[in-house]
């Protein structure tokens, strides 16, 4: 009789989650989608926009601070930056998620924490280019959501966005 060798004991795989999403616990209301998050703002702040950002994040259960990149807080979970200039210093620290204000807006809109799922949710690798600073870019054929993302990307590279086509438009981006 052929006997099969005993099966090796299988150990359950342990998966560690690097980032904790508090809304995964169904007992947290969707309005508090940033509960347990501590944000650090890495850009040169526009005071009016910064006050709105601080109020918005705190309203949704998170904490935020404007910081110096060299003194990155241990309790920080997310670092907000629009350009990738701060990313090398942030990556030296462990367990820090890099995001943009666009990601924050989308999380608030969905009322649940999700990893970045759009290009504009991550800091731009593009550096403001003086050769495009005088260029006017228009778009056509995109949905409102797509147009919003394109507008942000156009502004991040330093160009000017125009919602309509005119004789001053240098570049036209079309969907089809």
Description:
By secondary structure, the protein is an alpha/beta fold. The chain has two domains: 27-121, BRCT domain (Rossmann fold), CATH 3.40.50.10190; 130-174, BRCT domain (Rossmann fold). The chain has four helices and seven strands, in the order E-H-E-E-H-E-H-E-H-E-E. It has a four-stranded parallel sheet with strand order 2-1-3-4. Strand 3, helix 2 (87-91) and strand 4 (97-99) form a beta-alpha-beta unit. The longest helix has 13 residues, at 47-59. The chain is globular, with a radius of gyration of 22 Å. The protein starts with 37 loop residues before the first strand and ends with a strand. Mean pLDDT is 78; it is low at 7-25. This is BRCT domain-containing protein. It comes from Panagrolaimus superbus. Residues 29-113 form the BRCT domain.
